[in-house]
Amino acid sequence: MRGIGEALQQAHKAVEGDVSGVVAGLGIAFNSTLVALGLSILVMFMLHQIQLRQERAVLDTEAFLDENVVRQMMVR
I want to staple 13 with a disulfide (CB 3.0 to 4.6 A). Which of 2, 18, 32, 64 is the partner? Predict the structure, then answer.
């Protein structure tokens, strides 16, 4: 938002022919968007890994309980 705001503030100069302020503002907007997307991908990957570990822990716990606890209860 900051980069787009700066670009819009320089719009009157762009009408006169000097587009450098607009280009600089849009460059900031593009760079910040690119960084945010990269960080979002990284965070989503980390959350995926955490969720995968949690699901594996639940499945391992269910398997352990099925093999050791439930079978012991059925035998008696």
Answer: 18
